[in-house]
Protein backbone atom coordinates (compact mmCIF):
# COMPACT_ATOMS: atom_id res chain seq x y z
CA UNK A 1 0.00 0.00 0.00
CA UNK A 2 1.38 3.51 -0.77
CA UNK A 3 2.49 5.31 2.35
CA UNK A 4 -0.11 8.06 2.04
CA UNK A 5 -2.80 5.38 1.94
CA UNK A 6 -1.95 4.25 5.46
CA UNK A 7 -3.40 7.45 6.91
CA UNK A 8 -6.77 6.95 5.28
CA UNK A 9 -6.97 3.29 6.28
CA UNK A 10 -6.00 4.19 9.87
CA UNK A 11 -8.62 6.92 10.04
CA UNK A 12 -11.17 4.51 8.59
CA UNK A 13 -10.37 2.15 11.47
CA UNK A 14 -10.88 5.03 13.91
CA UNK A 15 -14.27 5.88 12.43
CA UNK A 16 -15.31 2.26 12.55
CA UNK A 17 -14.35 2.06 16.22
CA UNK A 18 -16.20 5.28 16.99
CA UNK A 19 -19.37 3.93 15.39
CA UNK A 20 -19.52 0.84 17.62
CA UNK A 21 -22.55 0.76 19.92
CA UNK A 22 -21.67 2.17 23.31
CA UNK A 23 -18.49 3.77 22.05
CA UNK A 24 -19.80 7.33 21.77
CA UNK A 25 -18.40 10.04 24.02
CA UNK A 26 -20.46 10.96 27.05
CA UNK A 27 -21.23 14.61 27.75
CA UNK A 28 -20.00 16.10 30.99
CA UNK A 29 -18.29 14.28 33.84
CA UNK A 30 -17.02 10.73 34.11
CA UNK A 31 -15.25 8.43 31.70
CA UNK A 32 -15.91 9.56 28.14
CA UNK A 33 -13.28 7.41 26.43
CA UNK A 34 -14.11 5.62 23.17
CA UNK A 35 -14.02 2.09 24.57
CA UNK A 36 -15.80 -1.07 23.47
CA UNK A 37 -15.04 -4.68 24.39
CA UNK A 38 -11.93 -3.53 26.27
CA UNK A 39 -10.47 -1.74 23.24
CA UNK A 40 -10.05 2.04 23.37
CA UNK A 41 -9.73 4.37 20.42
CA UNK A 42 -7.66 7.44 21.26
CA UNK A 43 -5.99 10.28 19.46
CA UNK A 44 -4.85 13.88 19.17
CA UNK A 45 -5.28 16.42 16.38
CA UNK A 46 -2.96 19.43 16.57
CA UNK A 47 -3.18 22.07 13.82
CA UNK A 48 -1.93 25.63 13.69
CA UNK A 49 -0.17 28.44 11.86
CA UNK A 50 3.56 29.11 12.15
CA UNK A 51 5.84 31.96 11.07
CA UNK A 52 9.62 31.88 10.79
CA UNK A 53 11.82 34.91 10.15
CA UNK A 54 14.27 32.41 8.65
CA UNK A 55 12.64 29.14 7.65
CA UNK A 56 11.93 26.91 4.70
CA UNK A 57 8.89 25.94 2.66
CA UNK A 58 6.01 23.65 3.66
CA UNK A 59 6.67 19.89 3.50
CA UNK A 60 3.98 17.20 3.39
CA UNK A 61 6.23 14.74 5.28
CA UNK A 62 8.22 16.61 7.97
CA UNK A 63 6.88 16.18 11.50
CA UNK A 64 5.57 19.77 11.77
CA UNK A 65 5.30 20.54 8.01
CA UNK A 66 7.69 23.46 8.64
CA UNK A 67 11.04 23.90 10.39
CA UNK A 68 10.07 25.68 13.58
CA UNK A 69 13.70 25.83 14.73
CA UNK A 70 16.70 27.01 12.74
CA UNK A 71 18.31 24.29 10.59
CA UNK A 72 21.01 24.44 7.91
CA UNK A 73 18.65 25.26 5.03
CA UNK A 74 16.59 27.85 6.94
CA UNK A 75 16.82 31.02 4.87
CA UNK A 76 13.59 32.86 4.01
CA UNK A 77 10.65 34.22 5.98
CA UNK A 78 7.75 31.78 5.89
CA UNK A 79 4.10 31.86 7.03
CA UNK A 80 2.31 28.55 6.74
CA UNK A 81 -0.15 26.05 8.09
CA UNK A 82 1.67 23.70 10.43
CA UNK A 83 0.98 20.49 12.31
CA UNK A 84 1.90 19.15 15.74
CA UNK A 85 3.02 22.34 17.46
CA UNK A 86 2.32 21.15 21.01
CA UNK A 87 1.66 17.42 20.52
CA UNK A 88 2.11 14.89 17.75
CA UNK A 89 -1.24 14.24 16.05
CA UNK A 90 -1.95 10.59 16.65
CA UNK A 91 -4.66 7.99 16.18
CA UNK A 92 -4.44 4.58 17.79
CA UNK A 93 -6.02 1.74 19.70
CA UNK A 94 -5.07 0.22 23.03
CA UNK A 95 -6.42 -2.41 25.36
CA UNK A 96 -5.98 -3.74 28.89
CA UNK A 97 -7.58 -7.04 29.90
CA UNK A 98 -7.46 -8.95 33.23
CA UNK A 99 -5.49 -12.21 33.20
CA UNK A 100 -6.13 -13.18 36.84
CA UNK A 101 -4.16 -12.98 40.10
CA UNK A 102 -3.66 -9.24 39.63
CA UNK A 103 -2.04 -9.54 36.19
CA UNK A 104 -3.21 -7.67 33.11
CA UNK A 105 -2.54 -8.12 29.43
CA UNK A 106 -2.11 -4.97 27.35
CA UNK A 107 -1.42 -3.76 23.82
CA UNK A 108 -1.08 -0.44 22.04
CA UNK A 109 -0.78 0.56 18.36
CA UNK A 110 -0.71 4.12 17.03
CA UNK A 111 0.50 6.28 14.18
CA UNK A 112 1.46 9.94 13.89
CA UNK A 113 0.10 12.11 11.09
CA UNK A 114 0.02 15.64 9.70
CA UNK A 115 -3.42 17.31 9.78
CA UNK A 116 -2.22 20.17 7.54
CA UNK A 117 -1.35 17.79 4.68
CA UNK A 118 -3.45 14.69 5.52
CA UNK A 119 -0.35 12.46 5.35
CA UNK A 120 1.59 10.26 7.75
CA UNK A 121 4.76 11.65 9.33
CA UNK A 122 7.73 10.52 7.28
CA UNK A 123 10.97 12.13 8.44
CA UNK A 124 13.31 10.31 6.03
CA UNK A 125 10.79 11.02 3.25
CA UNK A 126 11.01 14.75 3.99
CA UNK A 127 14.74 14.45 3.32
CA UNK A 128 14.54 12.35 0.12
CA UNK A 129 12.15 14.94 -1.37
CA UNK A 130 15.15 17.31 -1.23
CA UNK A 131 17.71 14.92 -2.73
CA UNK A 132 19.80 16.84 -5.25
CA UNK A 133 18.01 20.14 -4.54
CA UNK A 134 20.25 23.18 -3.86
CA UNK A 135 20.27 24.06 -0.15
CA UNK A 136 18.59 27.45 -0.53
CA UNK A 137 15.67 25.84 -2.43
CA UNK A 138 15.03 22.93 -0.09
CA UNK A 139 11.68 22.41 1.62
CA UNK A 140 11.42 21.78 5.35
CA UNK A 141 12.82 18.46 6.53
CA UNK A 142 13.79 16.60 9.66
CA UNK A 143 15.05 13.15 10.60
CA UNK A 144 12.65 10.88 12.48
CA UNK A 145 12.00 7.25 13.36
CA UNK A 146 8.48 7.95 12.11
CA UNK A 147 9.13 6.95 8.51
CA UNK A 148 5.71 6.56 6.92
CA UNK A 149 5.03 3.14 8.47
CA UNK A 150 1.46 2.06 9.17
CA UNK A 151 2.25 2.23 12.91
CA UNK A 152 5.03 4.80 13.07
CA UNK A 153 4.52 5.43 16.79
CA UNK A 154 4.09 2.56 19.24
CA UNK A 155 3.22 -1.04 18.44
CA UNK A 156 3.63 -3.41 21.37
CA UNK A 157 2.06 -6.09 23.54
CA UNK A 158 2.76 -6.80 27.19
CA UNK A 159 1.75 -7.74 30.71
CA UNK A 160 1.61 -5.72 33.90
CA UNK A 161 1.13 -6.10 37.62
CA UNK A 162 0.73 -3.40 40.29
CA UNK A 163 3.36 -5.21 42.35
CA UNK A 164 5.86 -6.44 39.77
CA UNK A 165 5.74 -3.72 37.09
CA UNK A 166 5.15 -3.72 33.34
CA UNK A 167 6.89 -5.78 30.65
CA UNK A 168 6.31 -4.95 26.98
CA UNK A 169 7.75 -6.09 23.66
CA UNK A 170 7.66 -4.46 20.22
CA UNK A 171 8.07 -0.91 18.99
CA UNK A 172 8.21 1.30 22.09
CA UNK A 173 9.14 4.75 23.31
CA UNK A 174 12.56 4.45 24.93
CA UNK A 175 13.24 5.11 28.60
CA UNK A 176 15.37 8.11 27.62
CA UNK A 177 12.56 9.56 25.51
CA UNK A 178 10.09 9.02 28.37
CA UNK A 179 12.38 10.84 30.82
CA UNK A 180 13.20 13.77 28.50
CA UNK A 181 9.53 14.46 27.76
CA UNK A 182 8.56 14.06 31.44
CA UNK A 183 11.11 16.64 32.61
CA UNK A 184 10.90 19.02 29.66
CA UNK A 185 8.66 21.94 30.74
CA UNK A 186 7.15 21.89 27.22
CA UNK A 187 6.73 18.07 27.13
CA UNK A 188 8.72 17.69 23.89
CA UNK A 189 6.62 20.20 21.95
CA UNK A 190 7.80 20.23 18.33
CA UNK A 191 7.20 23.96 17.83
CA UNK A 192 8.66 25.32 21.08
CA UNK A 193 11.00 22.75 22.66
CA UNK A 194 14.57 22.24 21.40
CA UNK A 195 14.56 18.65 22.67
CA UNK A 196 11.17 18.01 21.08
CA UNK A 197 11.92 19.44 17.64
CA UNK A 198 15.42 18.01 17.17
CA UNK A 199 14.75 14.79 19.05
CA UNK A 200 18.43 13.81 19.36
CA UNK A 201 18.54 14.43 23.17
CA UNK A 202 15.64 11.99 23.57
CA UNK A 203 17.08 9.61 20.97
CA UNK A 204 20.47 8.89 22.58
CA UNK A 205 22.08 11.33 20.17
CA UNK A 206 20.05 10.60 17.03
CA UNK A 207 16.42 11.60 16.45
CA UNK A 208 15.44 8.33 14.81
CA UNK A 209 16.12 6.40 18.03
CA UNK A 210 13.46 8.00 20.23
CA UNK A 211 11.25 5.02 19.39
CA UNK A 212 12.91 1.65 18.72
CA UNK A 213 11.76 -1.61 17.14
CA UNK A 214 12.25 -5.07 18.62
CA UNK A 215 12.57 -3.86 22.23
CA UNK A 216 11.95 -5.70 25.49
CA UNK A 217 11.12 -2.96 28.02
CA UNK A 218 10.49 -3.24 31.76
CA UNK A 219 9.31 -0.47 34.11
CA UNK A 220 8.39 -0.59 37.79
CA UNK A 221 7.25 1.71 40.61
CA UNK A 222 7.95 0.71 44.21
CA UNK A 223 7.07 3.32 46.81
CA UNK A 224 9.27 6.37 46.32
CA UNK A 225 11.42 4.62 43.73
CA UNK A 226 10.80 4.03 40.05
CA UNK A 227 12.92 2.76 37.21
CA UNK A 228 13.26 0.54 34.21
CA UNK A 229 15.47 -1.34 31.78
CA UNK A 230 15.22 -2.13 28.07
CA UNK A 231 17.10 -4.01 25.38
CA UNK A 232 16.76 -3.77 21.61
CA UNK A 233 17.28 -6.90 19.52
CA UNK A 234 18.36 -4.71 16.63
CA UNK A 235 20.19 -7.43 14.73
CA UNK A 236 17.16 -9.73 14.70
CA UNK A 237 15.56 -8.74 11.40
CA UNK A 238 12.35 -10.65 12.15
CA UNK A 239 11.49 -8.25 15.00
CA UNK A 240 13.30 -5.01 14.08
CA UNK A 241 13.78 -2.83 11.01
CA UNK A 242 16.65 -1.02 12.73
CA UNK A 243 20.21 -2.40 12.68
CA UNK A 244 22.30 -2.43 15.83
CA UNK A 245 21.52 -3.38 19.41
CA UNK A 246 20.72 -1.00 22.25
CA UNK A 247 20.22 -0.95 25.99
CA UNK A 248 18.98 1.66 28.49
CA UNK A 249 18.66 1.84 32.27
CA UNK A 250 16.62 4.33 34.32
CA UNK A 251 16.62 4.87 38.09
CA UNK A 252 14.45 7.51 39.72
CA UNK A 253 12.91 8.63 42.99
CA UNK A 254 10.12 10.93 44.13
CA UNK A 255 9.78 12.51 47.55
CA UNK A 256 7.27 15.19 48.37
CA UNK A 257 7.55 17.95 45.78
CA UNK A 258 10.78 16.55 44.31
CA UNK A 259 11.34 14.03 41.52
CA UNK A 260 14.64 12.87 40.00
CA UNK A 261 15.79 10.46 37.29
CA UNK A 262 19.12 9.25 36.01
CA UNK A 263 19.35 7.45 32.65
CA UNK A 264 22.16 5.51 30.95
CA UNK A 265 21.78 4.59 27.26
CA UNK A 266 23.89 2.93 24.56
CA UNK A 267 23.18 2.17 20.90
CA UNK A 268 25.33 0.46 18.28
CA UNK A 269 25.02 1.44 14.61
CA UNK A 270 22.88 4.47 15.27
CA UNK A 271 21.99 6.30 12.03
CA UNK A 272 21.59 10.06 11.69
CA UNK A 273 19.95 11.39 8.52
CA UNK A 274 21.13 14.96 8.87
CA UNK A 275 20.78 16.26 5.31
CA UNK A 276 19.51 15.26 1.85
CA UNK A 277 21.80 13.87 -0.85
CA UNK A 278 23.87 16.37 -2.77
CA UNK A 279 23.63 16.52 -6.58
CA UNK A 280 26.89 14.53 -6.79
CA UNK A 281 25.55 11.83 -4.47
CA UNK A 282 22.36 11.59 -6.53
CA UNK A 283 24.41 11.26 -9.73
CA UNK A 284 26.37 8.39 -8.17
CA UNK A 285 23.15 6.36 -7.90
CA UNK A 286 23.08 6.08 -11.71
CA UNK A 287 26.82 5.82 -12.30
CA UNK A 288 28.04 2.25 -13.01
CA UNK A 289 30.89 1.34 -10.69
CA UNK A 290 29.72 3.64 -7.92
CA UNK A 291 29.28 1.92 -4.54
CA UNK A 292 25.70 3.24 -4.41
CA UNK A 293 24.84 2.41 -8.04
CA UNK A 294 21.27 1.19 -8.48
CA UNK A 295 19.80 2.47 -5.22
CA UNK A 296 16.51 4.40 -5.70
CA UNK A 297 16.84 8.17 -5.37
CA UNK A 298 13.48 8.50 -3.58
CA UNK A 299 14.41 5.89 -0.95
CA UNK A 300 18.13 6.56 -0.34
CA UNK A 301 19.85 8.92 2.09
CA UNK A 302 23.38 9.65 3.32
CA UNK A 303 23.62 8.57 6.95
CA UNK A 304 26.18 9.20 9.67
CA UNK A 305 26.69 5.92 11.55
CA UNK A 306 27.98 5.87 15.12
CA UNK A 307 28.01 4.04 18.43
CA UNK A 308 26.39 6.41 20.95
CA UNK A 309 26.55 6.45 24.74
CA UNK A 310 24.49 8.83 26.87
CA UNK A 311 24.11 9.60 30.54
CA UNK A 312 21.52 12.07 31.79
CA UNK A 313 20.25 13.59 35.05
CA UNK A 314 16.82 15.22 35.32
CA UNK A 315 14.84 16.86 38.12
CA UNK A 316 11.53 18.55 38.91
CA UNK A 317 10.20 20.57 41.84
CA UNK A 318 6.42 20.97 42.19
CA UNK A 319 5.63 24.15 44.13
CA UNK A 320 1.87 23.96 43.52
CA UNK A 321 0.93 26.51 40.89
CA UNK A 322 4.51 26.50 39.63
CA UNK A 323 6.64 23.55 38.53
CA UNK A 324 10.37 23.92 37.92
CA UNK A 325 12.49 21.67 35.68
CA UNK A 326 16.18 21.15 34.98
CA UNK A 327 18.23 18.57 33.11
CA UNK A 328 21.76 17.81 31.93
CA UNK A 329 22.76 15.31 29.23
CA UNK A 330 26.14 14.06 27.97
CA UNK A 331 26.25 12.22 24.62
CA UNK A 332 29.37 10.55 23.20
CA UNK A 333 29.49 9.68 19.49
CA UNK A 334 32.17 7.29 18.20
CA UNK A 335 32.77 5.59 14.86
CA UNK A 336 30.83 2.31 14.73
CA UNK A 337 32.53 -0.84 16.00
CA UNK A 338 30.79 -2.70 13.14
CA UNK A 339 30.85 -0.46 10.01
CA UNK A 340 27.61 -0.41 8.03
CA UNK A 341 27.46 -1.59 4.42
CA UNK A 342 26.29 0.67 1.59
CA UNK A 343 22.64 -0.05 0.82
CA UNK A 344 21.71 -1.23 4.32
CA UNK A 345 17.96 -0.94 4.69
CA UNK A 346 16.48 0.62 7.79
CA UNK A 347 13.15 1.75 9.23
CA UNK A 348 10.55 2.72 6.64
CA UNK A 349 12.41 0.77 3.94
CA UNK A 350 14.98 3.53 3.36
CA UNK A 351 18.49 2.70 2.12
CA UNK A 352 21.63 4.13 3.71
CA UNK A 353 24.80 5.39 2.07
CA UNK A 354 26.81 5.34 5.30
CA UNK A 355 29.62 7.48 6.62
CA UNK A 356 31.38 5.15 9.06
CA UNK A 357 34.28 7.55 9.73
CA UNK A 358 32.59 10.82 10.69
CA UNK A 359 34.39 11.16 14.03
CA UNK A 360 38.21 11.46 13.93
CA UNK A 361 37.86 11.79 17.69
CA UNK A 362 34.74 10.98 19.70
CA UNK A 363 32.27 13.84 19.56
CA UNK A 364 30.85 15.09 22.87
CA UNK A 365 27.49 16.84 22.83
CA UNK A 366 26.12 18.34 26.04
CA UNK A 367 22.51 19.50 26.34
CA UNK A 368 21.02 21.32 29.32
CA UNK A 369 17.80 23.14 30.03
CA UNK A 370 15.88 24.92 32.75
CA UNK A 371 12.24 25.95 32.68
CA UNK A 372 8.91 26.19 34.43
CA UNK A 373 5.17 25.82 34.07
CA UNK A 374 2.93 28.26 35.92
CA UNK A 375 -0.83 28.00 36.34
CA UNK A 376 -2.07 31.54 35.76
CA UNK A 377 -5.64 30.29 36.33
CA UNK A 378 -7.14 26.79 36.62
CA UNK A 379 -7.49 26.75 32.83
CA UNK A 380 -4.51 28.85 31.62
CA UNK A 381 -0.90 27.69 31.84
CA UNK A 382 2.27 29.63 31.07
CA UNK A 383 5.43 27.78 29.94
CA UNK A 384 8.96 29.10 29.70
CA UNK A 385 12.25 27.34 28.92
CA UNK A 386 15.88 27.93 27.98
CA UNK A 387 17.85 25.24 26.12
CA UNK A 388 21.56 25.10 25.35
CA UNK A 389 23.49 22.50 23.33
CA UNK A 390 27.32 22.55 23.39
CA UNK A 391 29.50 20.63 20.96
CA UNK A 392 33.18 19.92 21.59
CA UNK A 393 35.74 20.05 18.78
CA UNK A 394 36.19 16.53 17.42
CA UNK A 395 38.34 16.94 14.28
CA UNK A 396 42.01 16.03 14.08
CA UNK A 397 42.84 19.59 15.12
CA UNK A 398 40.97 21.73 17.63
CA UNK A 399 38.97 24.68 16.29
CA UNK A 400 36.24 26.97 17.58
CA UNK A 401 34.94 28.78 14.51
CA UNK A 402 32.58 28.21 11.58
CA UNK A 403 35.20 26.68 9.27
CA UNK A 404 34.02 23.11 9.89
CA UNK A 405 31.06 21.31 11.53
CA UNK A 406 33.74 19.47 13.55
CA UNK A 407 34.65 22.70 15.37
CA UNK A 408 33.30 23.42 18.83
CA UNK A 409 30.13 25.49 18.99
CA UNK A 410 26.75 25.83 20.60
CA UNK A 411 23.02 26.31 19.95
CA UNK A 412 20.75 28.47 22.12
CA UNK A 413 16.96 28.47 22.23
CA UNK A 414 14.39 30.38 24.32
CA UNK A 415 10.65 29.66 24.40
CA UNK A 416 7.54 31.21 25.94
CA UNK A 417 4.09 29.65 25.49
CA UNK A 418 0.57 30.17 26.84
CA UNK A 419 -2.10 27.46 26.72
CA UNK A 420 -5.84 27.87 27.36
CA UNK A 421 -7.83 24.70 28.16
CA UNK A 422 -11.56 24.91 27.46
CA UNK A 423 -12.20 21.34 28.59
CA UNK A 424 -10.37 18.02 28.75
CA UNK A 425 -10.62 17.61 24.97
CA UNK A 426 -9.92 21.07 23.56
CA UNK A 427 -7.26 23.74 24.09
CA UNK A 428 -5.75 26.68 22.22
CA UNK A 429 -2.09 27.68 22.46
CA UNK A 430 0.22 30.41 21.26
CA UNK A 431 3.88 31.11 21.77
CA UNK A 432 7.22 32.03 20.35
CA UNK A 433 10.74 30.73 20.35
CA UNK A 434 14.09 32.17 19.36
CA UNK A 435 17.02 30.03 18.24
CA UNK A 436 20.59 30.87 17.26
CA UNK A 437 23.73 28.92 16.31
CA UNK A 438 27.37 29.78 17.01
CA UNK A 439 30.81 28.69 15.75
CA UNK A 440 31.07 25.04 14.63
CA UNK A 441 27.35 24.50 15.18
CA UNK A 442 26.75 27.23 12.58
CA UNK A 443 28.95 25.67 9.89
CA UNK A 444 26.92 25.16 6.72
CA UNK A 445 23.94 27.21 7.97
CA UNK A 446 22.53 29.81 5.59
CA UNK A 447 21.42 31.97 8.54
CA UNK A 448 22.51 32.24 12.17
CA UNK A 449 19.25 32.92 13.98
CA UNK A 450 15.47 32.85 13.69
CA UNK A 451 12.40 34.08 15.56
CA UNK A 452 9.42 31.74 15.25
CA UNK A 453 5.94 32.41 16.69
CA UNK A 454 3.14 29.83 16.36
CA UNK A 455 -0.52 29.46 17.32
CA UNK A 456 -2.69 26.37 17.21
CA UNK A 457 -5.59 24.30 18.45
CA UNK A 458 -5.45 20.80 19.92
CA UNK A 459 -8.23 18.23 20.17
CA UNK A 460 -7.80 15.00 22.16
CA UNK A 461 -10.09 12.00 22.40
UniProtKB/TrEMBL annotation:
<keyword id="KW-1134">Transmembrane beta strand</keyword>
<keyword id="KW-0406">Ion transport</keyword>
<comment type="subunit">
    <text>Homotrimer.</text>
</comment>
<keyword id="KW-0472">Membrane</keyword>
<dbReference type="InterPro" id="IPR050298">
    <property type="entry name" value="Gram-neg_bact_OMP"/>
</dbReference>
<dbReference type="InterPro" id="IPR033900">
    <property type="entry name" value="Gram_neg_porin_domain"/>
</dbReference>
<keyword id="KW-0813">Transport</keyword>
<keyword id="KW-0626">Porin</keyword>
<keyword id="KW-0998">Cell outer membrane</keyword>
<dbReference type="Pfam" id="PF13609">
    <property type="entry name" value="Porin_4"/>
</dbReference>
<keyword id="KW-0732">Signal</keyword>
<dbReference type="InterPro" id="IPR023614">
    <property type="entry name" value="Porin_dom_sf"/>
</dbReference>
<feature type="signal peptide">
    <location>
        <begin position="1"/>
        <end position="26"/>
    </location>
</feature>
<protein>
    <submittedName>
        <fullName>Porin</fullName>
    </submittedName>
</protein>
<feature type="domain" description="Porin">
    <location>
        <begin position="12"/>
        <end position="353"/>
    </location>
</feature>
<keyword id="KW-0812">Transmembrane</keyword>
Amino acid sequence: MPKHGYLFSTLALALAMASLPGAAMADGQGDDSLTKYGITLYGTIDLGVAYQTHGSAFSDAAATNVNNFLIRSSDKSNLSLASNGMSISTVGIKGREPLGDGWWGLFQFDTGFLPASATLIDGPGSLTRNNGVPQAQQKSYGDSGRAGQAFNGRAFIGIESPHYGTLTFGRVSTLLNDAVCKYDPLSCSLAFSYVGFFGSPAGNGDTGDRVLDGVLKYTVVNGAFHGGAMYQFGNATLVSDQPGTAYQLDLGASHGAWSFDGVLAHKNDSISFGAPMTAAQVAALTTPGSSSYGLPVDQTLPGTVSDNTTYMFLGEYDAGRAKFFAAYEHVRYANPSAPMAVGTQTVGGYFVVPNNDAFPRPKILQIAWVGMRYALTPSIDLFGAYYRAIQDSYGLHDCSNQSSPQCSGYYNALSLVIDKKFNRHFDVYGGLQWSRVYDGFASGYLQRGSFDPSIGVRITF
